[in-house]
Amino acid sequence: MAAKLAALSAAAGCIGSGDALSLSPGSRHGGAFLATDSDLQPEQVAATLVSVEDEWQADVSLYNKDDCDGSGKNTEVDCERAPESFEKSCGVVVKAVLEGSDGKRSNANEYLDQVCGEDVLEGWHKEQCQVLSQSIVDAMNLDSYANRQNMDLRHMCSGIWTKFVSEEKGRAVKEKTERKERDAKEAADMAATQAAEEAARKAEAVAKAKAEEEAAQAKSEEAAKNKAEVEEKAQAEAEAKAKAAEVARAHEVSVAKAEAEKKAKAAAQAAKEKAEDEALAKVRADARSAAEEAAAKAKEQEQANAQAAEVAKAQAKAKAEEDARAKEEAAAKLAAKAKEAEAAAKSAAEKAAKEEATASEEAKTAAVPDFQISDKQKRAIMNKVQEVYAEEPKKVFKPAAAAAGAAGKFTITDKQRAHILKVVNTTQSAKK
């Protein structure tokens, strides 16, 4: 402590404890105290004050801990010597400030504001510096000499000590409360995080199982239609799973890192990491087993589809052969009918030729002068000719049955009929 106080005094402008300042008195007048006094070194004073305040804070904490101002008994600190030690070191600091400012209140205020404003003083260090600064400035008056020579440093430092002790008690109570709240929050956050991680792992396992089942079903359904599409989809799913696993692993690493910073013992962290690795290995093993099972099912389905395709192909071939035989049989029947029709046509043609020959003979016979029929026969023939021509004008007239009662059984052709009509007409004309 003595070495730090000596360094603090030197940085504030003192050559030694109680010695004269290194700055000339003329340089400390006016409102540009810090601007003209570069030897005051507020940065070094602030840096040294941090160490001094740490020791002050330690004494105050022990003083409060042992309840030196109450009914508690001393265990770690001398309850009477602690305030005296503080008052002595505080007096050295205050005296250095008073002499460094030449006892001028405005200079001291400006200087202490600069020191307390340094970046090295943060948190409670800054607060203690501000308490020290305010106490010194409040204790000073307009008489520079009285400030340097007659200020009651013991009384002022005793007041500062009382403030430090009171503020430390409040700060300790506040820190204890905040620490409890922080510990409770961390415990709750940890429990919530663990629960969320467990739920996420379960949800991920269910989602993976469902995704793998759906992927296997889709692969089985699409295998027969488009094998290339199924393979592409399976590859995409594998990449998605790998990416999801990578993201999950990155998340797990991040969570593990965050938890590692919160945990106090390395053994607990190692146990957690081991448990996470085992869980991840189990998840990967389950996923790999499910993927292999799905692949086996897909292969079985593919074989079944191939067999079904072969059966369908054989059935289609048999049906095609049966249809071909049916067509051949129908064609054969049509050919037979055509052949029958051709034979019938040939027979009809032969018959027509025979009838024509017969008609020719009959015509020759009709041309003979002694061919004569009675009037009754003529009338019967005429009536029948008119009747047939009215019903079937384009058909061959065969009045064998109709004319049987009139002129006996006979058959005539168209030529014969024409000849008969001619004869009839000629006969009628001759009769008239």
* Number of distinct helices: 13
Radius of gyration: 67 Å
Proportion of residues in helical segments: over 70%
Distance between the termini: 182 Å
Helix and strand pattern: HHHHHHHHHHHHH
Query: Strand content of the residues, in percent?
Result: under 5%
How would you sum up the global shape?
Answer: rod-shaped
Number of domains: 3
> What does the main sheet amount to?
none
Low-pLDDT regions = 14-38, 394-401, 403-410
Q: What is the averaged pLDDT score?
A: 77
Structural class: mainly alpha
Task: Tell how many strands the DSSP assignment holds.
Answer: 0
Overview of this structure, please?
- The chain has 13 helices and no strands.
- The chain has 432 residues and is an all-alpha fold.
- The protein folds into three domains: 150 residues, no CATH class; 118 residues; 60 residues, no CATH class.
- Helix 1 packs antiparallel against helix 3 and helix 4 packs across helix 8.
- About 9% of the residues have low confidence.
List the helices and strands and how they pair.
Layout: H1 2-12, H2 33-36, H3 42-65, H4 81-100, H5 105-116, H6 124-139, H7 144-149, H8 153-223, H9 227-262, H10 266-366, H11 375-391, H12 404-407, H13 414-431
Helix pairs in contact: 1-3, 1-4, 3-5, 3-8, 4-8, 5-6, 6-8, 8-9, 8-10, 9-10, 10-13
